[in-house]
Amino acid sequence: MSEVEEIKDKNYVFYINADLSEYAGKWIAIVGGRVVASGENPEDVYMDALKIAGDKEISLAFVPTDELLIL
Predict the structure, then answer these.
(1) What are the structural domain ranges in the chain?
(2) pTM score of the predicted model
């Protein structure tokens, strides 16, 4: 597994297992297994994360609300 794949896996595992209820309905940027930025607009969240992450891999994800159902 490459270093990039390991980072993506770490960020994915964090996203799946963490209590992200405080971010419900928002976009989050995950770097190194932690949330570094959040907000309503994914582009803004990504740009904020770039300032913090530098050259580290950024994972962008939407945190669904309890009412959201994906089929």
Answers:
(1) 3-62
(2) 0.82
